[in-house]
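Final report, closing paragraph on structural work. Over the funding period we assembled a curated collection of sequence-structure pairs, and we close with a single example.
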Amino acid sequence: MMTDQKGFSLLEVVVGLGLILFVSAGMAASTIGSIQTGAVSNQVTVASFLVQDKIEQLRSLDPSTNPADLTVGSHSDAAGAMDQFGQSGGAYTRTWTVTEDTPILGMSEVVITVSWNGPTHQTMSGVTFLCDGASCT
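Its predicted structure, as stored:
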């Protein structure tokens, strides 16, 4: 019997390769999960930007001129589906609903909703309150 042999047995090599494959598969699954989470995070960020952008647009309007975007009821962007810059041709749709005299007389509640299809249909909403005229100073 020889006791001074050097190197690895076939069993040790197979076990080592199995461990490497097991760890690699776990890392691949983790990487895929991170990529998917990053994509969803990007979509939510874009939706948040589009909500805030519409809030700023509506707040810049002069209510005394009775702009169409501030009339009571539901509205949607003329561009239809839009991209992350608010230009037509993207995956996001933006609507808003104006409710008069809410929460008090002379104010309007505006709920802006952005919808998009990711792995599932998703929405994000924001709310702002606007004065109907000079009564809210």
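The longest helix spans residues 10-59. The chain has one domain: 10-131. We thank the funder for supporting this effort.
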